[in-house]
Specification:
The complex is a heterodimer of chains A (323) and B (322).
Chain A (H helix, E strand, L loop, with lengths): L13 H22 L13 H8 L7 E3 L5 H6 L4 H8 L32 H16 L5 E6 L6 H12 L4 E7 L2 E2 L2 E2 L10 H4 L6 E5 L3 H18 L3 E6 L17 H8 L3 H12 L4 H24 L15
Parallel strand pairs in A: 1-2, 2-3, 3-7, 6-7
Antiparallel strand pairs in A: 4-5
Helix pairs in contact in A: 1-2, 1-10, 1-11, 2-8, 4-11, 5-6
Chain B lengths: L2 E3 H15 L3 E5 L2 H4 L1 H7 L4 E3 L4 H13 L3 E8 L7 H8 L2 H4 L9 E6 L14 H5 L5 E3 L4 H13 L4 E6 L6 E3 L13 E4 L4 E5 L3 H14 L4 E5 L2 E3 L3 H11 L2 E8 L4 H13 L8 E5 L8 H7 L3 H13 L4
Parallel strand pairs in B: 2-3, 2-4, 4-5, 5-7, 6-7, 10-11, 10-13, 13-14
Antiparallel strand pairs in B: 1-8, 6-12, 9-11
Helix pairs in contact in B: 1-8, 4-5, 9-13, 10-11
Classes of the chains: A alpha/beta (323), B alpha/beta (322).
Chain lengths: 323, 322
């Protein structure tokens, strides 16, 4: 494996910026389409792009990802085609799941994104089994399991960590603590401030990282993934971030403290990354504009692809129920 | 043919299948403790004890099944499956379809239920209909050791999640089991007794109650045909319909609560498909809409007994649809 810089300041964040911009543009295209009644509403990951991009870029091609309903960042960072993703969201035949999933449970097995579930905590219940297959069949790679602070309050979180520690399973648990559990603030639902605090009860090493600093997330995730690989034991990385849009589009967020949201918007992961690159001279304004143009072109093409894709045929109603 | 208990027949099926395919693993609540012969032959990695946590047992089986292993998990008692409903119903049953066919879930879930041990309603609750109602799952419940072995082998080889219910009352009853590697196909009923006047459909221990009822009826000149469903999903509608078309009468018998039980589906399909052949109304015999009591007489009273089955068949044979 190529050695990676451990210091966040040595990471070339330009490709990461482009991935984050693609995710943001994809989510915003869905929001706009949803507002216009053309695309079903989704659970967006707006505000959490750095947490997804940083971790996914720390993984290798053999590593397997389990994710959840707020998955656009993981899928796009892993290289999913935004056109096929959008087709899935719109219930079209060319979606990754033939239009049967919609936005909430998109798996892309060919990219190693498996068993995506919208049941909060289900990714945690299935991750030990995936890691068991890898360990017992002698496949390379580790399992990265993305979940939120809401899922960490499910019993499956605790059962999963206990079993992974007990059976020495190579799982990188990634808790995206976005402060919101559907319409409930984490403070109303969690007995502790950080999910990472719970890991030590199971003898699992853990760290909380600034989830809005993409270079910091990438550096921490690389170190965590290396530890999982070397030890064949689980690790928990908590990315401290914020869901700046609602739980599910549309959502007026009337329940959100405006001051808290404003504070997090001031630490927008994309602005943070771009400003840092510009200040360091690693990116100039015309290069930044070129990235914006590339992203806009891809999203435009994705929308056109998805809209041109037909709906599934009626006989798809009962296909693939049984193997 | 050697006589094995149903418990040992399950062990024989696991042994033969685990020898055949290294992808098969077995884990669950005490399986490594109780079946140390499996641990001795296949090692502690393929046969594992787990925490008493049905959710993570099932979830781990789902994740493993989707990525190359073929798990068999032991959940002990069927009511404990309530803790595993999400993993079995929402994950194993749905994620193949919802992903556009990207995954298959070759896994078997073992769970015991039924009257016989006086363990009460939180250990004895015949919940098989819940899983029959859930898409993507298959359900079996054998009535004898030979079928238990053959059905488990078929369930392990099947690429779908299979719920395998074990009738507690039959667990240590011996029965002849073929020595050869006989596989009982899923979805195929057995005609446990041939007859011409009334069709009696059942599964699990009540098949034996139906046999006793048939003996009583025979002395009265009533010939009962008994069909042992063995598989509840898919269930063998063809065999049941062919029988009812000959006899014109149907009694469905199961230990599970009668309300929305498997018998309701069988009765409905026969009414839809073979109404013209019916000489009398269809009768369902099942447990009451009540939890099962621990007390022996009440536990037995929950289960349709031979006298009640014979009485139901007798009434049908005396009655004609006008």
């Amino acid at each position: 494996m190529t050695p990676h810089p451990a210091n966040p300041h040595e990471i070339d964040a330009r490709p990461l910026l482009e991935q984050m911009l693609l995710i943001r543009a994809y989510e915003e295209a869905i929001v706009a389409g949803s507002d216009a009644g053309a695309i079903p509403g989704t659970c967006t990951s707006v505000g959490q792009e750095a947490a997804a991009v940083g971790v996914v870029n720390a993984l290798g091609a053999d590593d397997v990802i389990l994710t959840n309903h707020r998955s656009a960042g993981h899928l796009l960072a892993r290289g999913a085609d935004p056109g096929r993703l959008l087709a899935e969201v719109m219930g079209r035949r060319d979606g990754y799941c033939k239009g049967r999933s919609g936005s909430l449970h998109i798996s892309v097995k060919e990219l190693g994104v498996v068993l995506t579930s919208t049941i909060v905590g289900a990714e945690l219940s299935m991750a030990p089994g995936v890691a068991l297959s890898q360990a017992m069949l002698g496949w390379p790679g580790i399992v990265a399991c993305f979940f939120g602070d809401g899922a960490a309050c499910e019993g499956s979180f605790h059962e999963s960590l206990n079993l992974a520690a007990l059976w020495n399973l190579p799982i990188l648990y990634v808790c995206e603590n976005n402060h919101w559990q559907a319409f409930v603030h984490r403070r109303e639902a969690m007995s502790r401030e950080h999910v990472s605090e719970w890991a030590s009860s199971y003898g699992i090493p853990a760290q909380t990282v600034d989830g809005n600093d993409v270079a910091a997330v990438l550096a921490a995730a690389r170190a965590a993934a290396e530890q999982v690989r070397a030890s064949c034991r689980p690790y928990l990385l908590e990315t401290w971030t914020y869901r700046t849009r609602g739980h599910f589009e549309p959502d007026d967020q009337s329940y959100v403290d405006p001051a808290e949201r404003a504070a997090w918007l001031a630490r927008d992961p994309i602005t943070l990354c771009r400003d840092r690159l510009l200040a360091a001279g690693a990116l100039n304004p015309s290069q930044a504009a070129a990235i914006d143009d590339r992203v806009a072109t891809r999203i435009h093409a994705a929308r056109a692809f998805a809209e041109a894709s037909p709906y599934p045929a009626a006989d798809e109603l009962t296909r693939d129920v049984y193997a | 043919m050697p006589a094995l208990t149903l418990y040992d027949a399950i062990g024989a099926a696991l042994t033969e299948e685990m020898r055949r395919d290294r992808h098969i693993i077995a884990f669950g609540e005490g399986i490594a403790t109780k079946r140390h012969d499996l641990v001795a032959e296949f090692g502690a990695l393929r046969v594992r004890n787990t925490p008493l946590a049905e959710g993570i047992i099932a979830g781990t089986a789902v994740g493993a099944a989707a990525t190359g292993l073929r798990p068999v998990v032991d959940m002990l008692f069927a009511p404990f499956l309530c803790y595993a409903m999400d993993e079995l119903v929402n994950s194993a049953g749905k994620l193949r379809y919802m992903s556009g066919g990207q995954f298959a879930f070759p896994l078997v879930t073992l769970a015991m239920t039924g009257a016989g041990w006086g363990v009460g309603a939180q250990h004895n609750h015949n919940v098989e209909a819940w899983f029959v109602h859930s898409p993507g799952l298959k359900v079996v419940m054998p009535s004898n050791p030979a079928d238990a072995k053959g059905l488990l082998k078929a369930a392990i080889r099947d690429d779908n999640p299979v719920l395998f219910f074990i009738d507690i009352g039959l667990l240590y009853q011996p029965g002849d089991v073929p020595l050869d590697e006989e596989v009982v196909p899923l979805g195929k009923a057995a005609v446990a007794r041939e007859g011409s006047d009334v069709t009696v459909v059942s599964y699990g221990k009540t098949v034996h109650h139906c046999r006793q009822a048939a003996e009583m009826l025979a002395t009265e000149g009533i010939s009962a045909e008994i069909i042992d469903l063995r598989s509840l999903k898919p269930w063998d509608a063809a065999t049941v319909l062919a029988s009812v078309e000959r006899t014109g009468r149907l009694v469905v018998v199961h230990e599970a609560n009668r309300v929305c039980g498997v018998g309701a589906e069988i009765a409905a399909v026969v009414a839809e498909e073979a109404f013209a052949c019916l000489k009398a109304p269809i009768v369902r015999l099942g447990g009451p809409d009540a939890p099962v009591a621990s007390s022996y007489p009440l536990e037995q009273a929950f289960v349709p007994q031979p006298e009640a089955i014979a009485a139901a068949a007798r009434r049908l044979c005396r009655r004609q649809i006008a």
